[in-house]
Design brief:
Blueprint lengths: L10 E10 L11 E2 L3 E4 L4 E5 L1 H9 L5 H6 L2 E2 L9 H5 E6 L10 E3 L13 H19 L1 H20 L2 H8 L2 H9 L2 E3 L5 E6 L4 E3 L9 E12 L2 E4 L1 E3 L5 E3 L3 E6 L4 E9 H7 L11 H24 L21 E5 L5 H4 L2 H4 L13 E6 L5 E3 L3 E8 L1
Parallel strand pairs: 3-5, 7-15
Antiparallel strand pairs: 1-16, 1-20, 2-7, 3-4, 4-6, 8-9, 10-16, 11-12, 11-15, 11-18, 13-14, 17-20, 18-19
Helix pairs in contact: 4-9, 5-6
Length: 387
């Protein structure tokens, strides 16, 4: 009997860490009504109440319909002793003064069923995927021109559409499929096969649950006009101008570090590595290099943008440019608020604010109680250290 041939099997594991440089929000489902947050202004703490606890208060008539959606619960509703306290409170976050202005609803950070926060591996892997695509397009003028022409057609279709259909066109399947093909080897019939996607060799795990270092805060959309950054003004249906209102979200604080599992299957990488003209990488050095290429490009544009009005460096920080990083580290941008510049394929392809409806002269930023801009969003450092 012939001995079965053994396939080569080698997985390289890394000690991977994500460390926040700015506040980060990764959404975890539908917004929560304001009454689920009991805010103690003395201790600057927001207690996130369990749904069952809020529902029982509503059924007993202790919360009115208008209060349910418009006002936080008073801190006095939180029981002082156990086990009643744990039965009422799912988790707690820090609440600076601006949190007391919470109105209608807040967007929670992604959490498991026990109310424990984590950073999804899919968010990190998605950012790496985009950086690898960016790196390919930077090096291939012909391919970049081809993708730019595809985007031009897509934008033309968006401009002719009504607002209700614009999002669907933006996620045009044919355009998305063309980008996905750049990660894949041809399968049967010469078509790019999802089973041959090179990123199958990369396993990025969720970070372990951890409730340390989260804050309930407010963010708003600011736009630059005449060298002044101010809340964005939009037109209502009746033609009146209105300033954008802040939204409340749970943010991971800057400086917090989350470890996570990161593995490259070397044998599978060699098997799935696509031909020239498609996304390729050999190891973590190439991954970090792609992330750095993208971060450098974005930083050059963003630093120019903020130099128009932010001479004090309050919003744009040198850390976002990768200053002082080690060879195995790169700046990465994830989560809510990254916007146009956080996903830098459009500017790489040569498009400006006049080409699309969403202008890159606007930014989502953390704001103070007075509505002043405090910080940009979504910046972090990724570290990959081979074990």
């Amino acid at each position: 009997m012939t001995e079965a041939r053994r396939l080569p099997y080698e997985k390289i594991r890394y000690r991977a860490t994500l460390t926040g440089l700015s506040p980060i929000h990764i959404g975890g489902g539908a917004p929560e009504p304001a009454c689920r947050y009991a805010i103690d202004e003395d201790t600057k703490t927001a207690y996130v109440l369990r749904e069952s606890f809020v529902a029982s208060r509503y059924a007993e008539g202790r919360i009115t319909g208008s209060e349910y959606h418009r006002r936080p619960s008073p801190a006095s509703v939180v029981p002082k002793t156990e086990p009643e306290r744990s039965e009422a409170v799912l988790y707690e976050v820090k609440a600076p003064r601006v949190a007391a202005s919470l109105d209608k609803e807040a967007r929670p950070f992604v959490r498991n069923g026990f109310g424990q926060a984590f950073i999804p591996g899919t968010s990190i892997k998605g950012a790496i995927r985009e950086a690898l695509l960016f790196s390919l397009l930077v090096q291939d003028d012909r391919l970049r021109g081809e993708i730019a022409a595809s985007v031009r057609d897509l934008i033309a279709e968006m401009k002719k559409s009504n607002p209700q259909s614009a999002n669907g066109i933006r996620r045009n399947r044919n355009h998305a499929s063309r980008l996905e093909e750049l990660f894949r080897n041809p399968g049967a019939g010469g078509r790019a096969d999802p089973k041959n996607d090179i990123l199958r060799c990369m396993a990025v795990e969720d970070t372990p649950p951890d409730n340390r270092g989260f804050t309930l805060a407010a963010a708003n959309i600011f736009s630059l006009s005449g060298g002044v950054l101010a809340p964005m003004i939009s037109q209502t249906r009746n033609g009146q101008s209105t300033r954008s209102a802040p939204v409340f979200l749970e943010f991971l604080d800057p400086g917090m570090s989350f470890p996570f599992g990161f593995t490259l299957d070397k044998a599978l990488l060699e098997k799935l590595s696509p031909p020239m003209g498609k996304v390729q990488f050999r190891n973590s050095v190439d991954i970090i290099g792609a992330l750095r290429d993208q971060a450098d490009f974005t930083a050059s544009l963003e630093s120019t943008f903020f130099s128009e009005f932010d001479s004090s460096g309050k919003l744009w920080k040198k850390e976002y440019e990768g200053a002082g990083l080690k060879e195995n580290q790169a700046v990465i941008r994830i989560g809510w608020g990254c916007g146009w510049m956080g996903h830098s394929l459009f500017p790489l392809l040569g498009y400006s604010e006049n080409d699309v409806a969403e202008s890159p002269k606007s930014r989502k930023v953390l704001v103070s109680q007075n509505g002043n801009p405090l910080s940009l969003l979504g910046y972090a450092v990724l570290t990959l250290q081979e074990e």
